[in-house]
Amino acid sequence: MASTIISSSPVTNSDRSKRRKKKKSAAAAAAAQQFKQAEGSSSHARWRTESQQQIYSSKLIQALSQVQLNPSSPSAPCRGRAVREAADRALAVSARGRSRWSRAILTSRIKLKFRKQQRRHQIKQQQRIVSAAGGGGGGISRARKPRVSVLRLRGKSLPAVQRKVRLLGRLVPGCKKEPLPVILEEATDYIAALEMQVRAMTALADLLSGSNQASAGSSG
Q1: pLDDT tens-place string over residues 92-101
Q2: Disordered: where is this region (predicted)?
């Protein structure tokens, strides 16, 4: 009888330890979820503060001062693209890499440089092949048929909700292949940051237009 009691006691102790571990892990997961929600709500509210707008404005002015516009081709699209990229980089720096979209913006510039280098290397290789083949005298160039991507065909067959989620994931940087909860969290923070960006750029534009008018009035 005593042997049966002794043999059954380790089983009960192991069960109790497992239950305690499960309770601890559940409590830790709940605390982490609450902390994440509180951090997300605080980050969303942070973009609406005046101090954050001033921080972004100073970083925006620094980024715009480093923009180098080519005087030989002063086209409006090139200037607009350069200003937009500088404004987005300043916004990502203001986020301090805490969000997925800010990290995606900061790393996209490095990836773009790497792609340009790869393209140049491929063009040089193609030119070498053409020159080695003697310019392809008498060769007939065949028109390539347009290829239909399998992903496009799959995208057309998806339900409307999934198509909208995929579109939202493409609009938010770094969320192209993320699940819906991550996309919604990142989109909420990204929209709040963009609203602050619009306010800061509007205030900066008003300030510059007012200084230009004042200088024109003093010269006149």
Answers
A1: 999 988 899 9
A2: 1-51
